[in-house]
Structure formats: structure tokens, C-alpha cells
């Protein structure tokens, strides 16, 4: 939660400094392409009686957003598959998993009369895990639903193009089984840092 508070505080400070308003129009579409760095929290729960650690990963990310009203957009986040190694204290390397984290968010973009345009969003995430492998046996992670919050800042580089920096916290918790037996819950809850080029249509 400290990560969420820091992201929201940064975006609020940027809004305060932003200046007078200038609307983003209802009916606009934006498409974003870039990279996302997934950094799971430091304590990832207990698996097979030991403390679990999930490492980080960077992959391509894509966003599509439709403005249902001036300054208010519905955004879909997609990505290429993220891959993570899982370690367990007392065991060491315990396996590798891949996941896809599509996230649907409602974003409010604070309009300004400058090139800097901050925004805040909240939404829901669905994470699906696949291609799990482990030297210990057959590893399986359940799919996950959770809340997602995000804060971002666009820097306008042309009439229709912008560079975007975004911080997104996602609640991801998944029950794990090994050889069909429950071994605990992995609490991933990552901070996702994204850098994108965003184009408005």
C-alpha cells in the first residue's frame, strides 16, 4: 500500500502544479505501445512451508483507451507474456511461470494548458498463469482477479502524440498446487512501471 500512496501523491502534486483546464474530447481513441517492468512485492507468501520469492520481468505492453466523456476514458491494458522464476527458502529454485495480466481501468485525465497531462485510474485485473514448470513436480497456479490502481503522466510531443510514464499497482494472489496437492498462496501484488508512446485518433 505504500507504493500506491506514493504513486497517488506524485500524481496529485503534478495536478496541483498543472494550471488551467483544457478538455480531452469525448469520442477520442488512444493507442499506446511500450514496455512494462513488473516488480512483485518483496514478501510473496508461503509455499511448501517456505517463504516464496517471485522475480521481476520486462515485456511489451499495449493500451487502448476510449473517452466516454471529456477527460474520462476506459482503458484496456494488454501485454506479451511475463515470465517469472519462483524460489522458496530452504529449497531454492522451485519453478518458472508465465502470465498475462489484462487490466480494464477507468481513467480520469486532468486537462491542462501545458504539455504535461497527469491522470489517475482504478480498475480490475484478470491474471492467467500458464506454462508452469518445476523440478519438484507438476506445478499449477490458479488464475486471479483483483483490483488495480494507476497513476500516469503524459508529455505531449505533437498534436496527437505523447510519451507516457505510468505506475500501476495490481492485486494478484494465486493458489498453488504441486502434484495436485495444495502448497499455499503466492501473493505477487506487483508494481508495474510502464513507458509508452501514445497516439490519439
TrEMBL record:
InterPro entries: OMP/PagP_B-barrel, OMPW. Transmembrane segments: none annotated. Residues 1-18 form the signal peptide. Keywords: Signal. It comes from the Bacteria. Gene3D superfamilies: 2.40.160.20. Pfam families: OmpW. Belongs to the OmpW/AlkL family. This is Outer membrane beta-barrel protein. It comes from Ruegeria alba.
Amino acid at each position: 500500500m505504500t507504493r500506491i500512496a506514493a504513486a497517488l501523491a506524485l500524481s496529485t502534486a503534478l495536478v496541483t502544479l498543472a494550471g488551467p483546464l483544457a478538455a480531452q474530447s469525448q469520442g477520442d481513441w488512444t493507442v499506446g505501445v511500450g514496455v512494462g517492468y513488473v516488480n512483485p512485492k518483496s514478501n510473496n507468501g508461503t509455499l511448501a512451508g517456505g517463504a516464496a520469492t517471485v522475480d521481476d520481468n520486462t515485456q511489451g505492453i499495449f493500451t487502448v483507451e476510449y473517452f466516454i466523456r471529456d477527460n474520462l476514458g476506459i482503458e484496456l491494458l494488454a501485454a506479451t507474456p511475463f515470465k517469472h522464476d519462483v524460489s522458496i527458502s530452504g529449497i531454492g529454485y522451485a519453478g518458472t511461470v508465465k502470465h498475462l495480466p489484462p487490466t480494464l481501468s477507468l481513467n480520469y485525465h486532468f486537462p491542462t494548458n501545458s504539455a504535461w497531462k497527469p491522470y489517475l485510474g482504478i480498475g480490475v485485473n484478470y491474471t492467467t498463469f500458464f506454462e508452469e514448470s518445476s523440478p519438484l513436480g507438476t506445478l499449477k497456479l490458479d488464475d486471479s482477479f483483483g483490483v488495480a490502481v494507476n497513476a500516469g503522466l503524459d508529455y505531449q510531443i505533437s498534436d496527437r502524440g505523447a510519451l507516457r510514464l505510468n505506475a500501476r499497482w495490481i492485486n494478484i494472489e494465486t493458489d498453488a498446487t504441486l502434484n495436485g496437492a495444495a502448497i499455499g498462496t503466492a501473493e505477487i501484488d506487483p508494481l508495474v512501471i510502464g513507458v509508452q508512446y501514445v497516439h490519439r485518433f
